[in-house]
């Protein structure tokens, strides 16, 4: 009984300490100007709501379990659906779409910083054509003389083949369904471009619509070309 009481008192003091730190914090650790309103674990301090929204998965590698990130995630996926698509398809192929989008985001953040929507759409189309050809029994490998496109093709191909064969703990998915997912993403990006959205804006949305790691029951984040550089999006 005495031990339980001591633990409860410790927890109460800890909560009071956090509350005190919150109210005593004068400025946001990000901008150094506005009053903070929430804790940001990646920054190790308190930040204001404006910096939270502006930095989320852009310059701050938010954890997936952050409630503010989750709220932003729902909004980001909703914006992608507004470009083109539907929630039913998003729900049915949630893990596949997440993993394909994740390699696009990581490729831009880590390999090809000037990646634009036209290059990404070209890579998605190339991989889709490869799958369509293989479905007919042809041995088909896709390549591009443009380095940026080839980087995306390599990453997308690894994800597609891993899903198709159920490798690395990813859900096994039929080639025809993978083809549909690739064409779905290409259509979203094409519609975004038609609506006047530039690459930076769309990639900001994509970064806020994905998890930090691949979604799969036993997947390792150190697998695959781009994933050998460690977890995280903006690191």
Instruction: Note the main sheet.
Output: 2 strands, antiparallel
Q: Please, what is the average pLDDT?
A: 84
Order of helices and strands: HEEHHHHHHHH
Label the structural class: mainly alpha
With strands numbered from the N-terminus, the spatial order across the biggest sheet is: 1-2
| Proportion of helical residues | 55-70%
- Radius of gyration, in Å, reads 21 Å
What is the molecular shape?
elongated
Throw out a few tags for this protein.
mainly alpha, elongated, 235 residues, 9 helices, single chain
How would you describe the overall organization of this protein?
The protein is elongated. The protein is built from 9 helices and 2 strands. The longest helix has 23 residues, at 2-24. The chain has a two-stranded antiparallel sheet. Strand 1 (38-40) and strand 2 form a beta hairpin. The protein has helices at 2-24, 49-55, 67-83, 87-92, 94-110, 117-135, 147-165, 175-194, 199-207, and strands spanning 38-40, 45-47. The chain has 235 residues and is mostly helical.
């Amino acid at each position: 009984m005495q031990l339980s009481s001591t633990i409860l008192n410790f927890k109460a003091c800890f909560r009071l300490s956090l509350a005190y730190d919150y109210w005593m914090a004068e400025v946001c650790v990000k901008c150094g100007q506005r009053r903070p309103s929430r804790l940001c674990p990646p920054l190790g301090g308190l930040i204001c709501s404006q910096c939270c929204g502006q930095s989320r998965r852009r310059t701050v590698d938010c954890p997936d379990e952050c409630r503010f990130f989750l709220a932003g995630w729902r909004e980001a996926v909703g914006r992608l659906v507004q470009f083109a698509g539907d929630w039913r398809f998003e729900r049915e192929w949630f893990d596949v779409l997440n993993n394909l989008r994740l390699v696009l985001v990581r490729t831009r953040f880590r390999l090809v910083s000037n990646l634009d929507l036209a290059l990404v759409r070209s890579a998605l189309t190339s991989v889709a054509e490869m799958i369509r050809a293989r479905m007919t029994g042809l041995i088909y490998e896709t390549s591009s003389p443009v380095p940026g496109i080839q980087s995306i093709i390599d990453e997308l191909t690894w994800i597609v083949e891993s899903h198709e064969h159920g490798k690395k703990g990813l859900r096994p998915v039929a080639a025809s369904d993978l083809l549909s997912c690739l064409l779905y993403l290409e259509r979203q990006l094409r519609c975004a471009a038609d609506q006047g959205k530039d690459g930076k804006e769309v990639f900001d949305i994509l970064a806020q619509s994905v998890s930090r790691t691949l979604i799969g029951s036993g997947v390792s984040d150190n697998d695959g070309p781009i994933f050998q550089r460690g977890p995280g999006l903006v690191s």
